[in-house]
């Protein structure tokens, strides 16, 4: 599946969200025993990050070449932040930051590979720039419509949240491809989404939320994996 196909993958419809697979994932999360995380020192967390980065690098560069992605979008740097929060993010200047707390709360390198591949995908798909443009447009439009900054903030949040969930879905889809091509085990990689879902009390995303709910991401992950 090429990147152009990934860009037009639709979000899960209301019917899809509550199909048999959705309920199956909810049931799985309530009963499944997720492998216990292995404690890692900061140095071990950094070493694991470097190992994953080295392993996915050639795969990503090959995808960039095949899809004619610009060099600017296909460049990134990775750092590990001393932070207990289960988090990772991509930001401007082609940066990717992984929280040491996330690495400390996973067991398999395959899980970290999915996280890193997901953040790389945001850069490849130019989501950072697109998101920033939507925020600025929303602030301007909201301020004009409501004649105050609060209105600008609400409009910016609305314009950002709807495509943002699609950005996350597309980044997951591309991350699956990267992880699979790099030779990682997708079954083990999936555990990181299960851990996220355990931390997320909602089973479906609400308006103004920038990310799909954990259950929604697992359902989409399984659907994409089946189509590989």
Task: Kindly describe this structure.
This protein is mainly alpha-helical and 228 residues long. The chain has helices spanning 3-7, 14-17, 20-31, 42-66, 100-104, 109-124, 127-146, 149-181, 186-189, 191-199, 214-226, and strands spanning 77-81, 88-91, 95-99. A three-stranded mixed beta sheet has the order 1-3-2. Strand 2 (88-91) and strand 3 form a beta hairpin. The model is unreliable at 4-12, 131-146 and 151-156 (pLDDT under 50).
**Poorly predicted spans:** 4-12, 131-146, 151-156
Major beta sheet, strand line-up: 1-3-2
* Apparent shape: globular
Number of helices: 11
| Alpha carbon gyration radius | 18 Å
**Total separate domains:** 1
How many β-strands, per DSSP?
3
Cα-to-Cα separation, first versus last residue = 7 Å
Helix content: 55-70%
Strand content: 5-15%
Structural class: mainly alpha
Largest sheet: 3 strands, mixed
Mean pLDDT: 79
Order of helices and strands: HHHHEEEHHHHHHH
């Amino acid at each position: 599946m090429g990147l152009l196909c990934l860009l037009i993958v639709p979000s899960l419809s209301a019917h899809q969200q509550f199909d048999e697979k959705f309920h199956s994932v909810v049931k799985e999360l309530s009963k499944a025993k997720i492998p216990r995380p292995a404690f890692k020192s900061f140095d071990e967390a950094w070493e694991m990050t470097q190992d994953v980065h080295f392993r996915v690098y050639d795969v990503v560069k090959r995808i960039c070449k095949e899809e004619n992605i610009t060099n600017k979008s296909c460049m990134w740097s990775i750092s590990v932040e001393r932070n207990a929060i289960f988090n990772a993010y991509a930001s401007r200047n082609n940066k990717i930051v992984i929280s040491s707390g996330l690495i400390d709360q996973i067991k398999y390198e395959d899980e970290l590979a999915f996280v890193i591949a997901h953040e790389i995908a945001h850069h490849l798909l130019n989501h950072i720039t697109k998101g920033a443009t939507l925020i600025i447009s929303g602030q301007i439009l909201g301020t004009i419509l409501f004649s105050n900054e609060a209105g600008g903030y609400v409009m910016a949040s609305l314009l950002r949240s709807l495509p943002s969930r699609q950005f996350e879905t597309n980044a997951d889809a591309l991350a699956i491809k990267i992880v699979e091509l790099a030779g990682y085990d997708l079954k083990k990689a999936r555990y990181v989404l299960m851990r996220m879902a355990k931390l997320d009390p909602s089973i479906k995303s609400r308006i103004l939320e920038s990310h799909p709910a954990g259950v929604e991401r697992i359902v989409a992950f399984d659907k994409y994996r089946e189509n590989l």
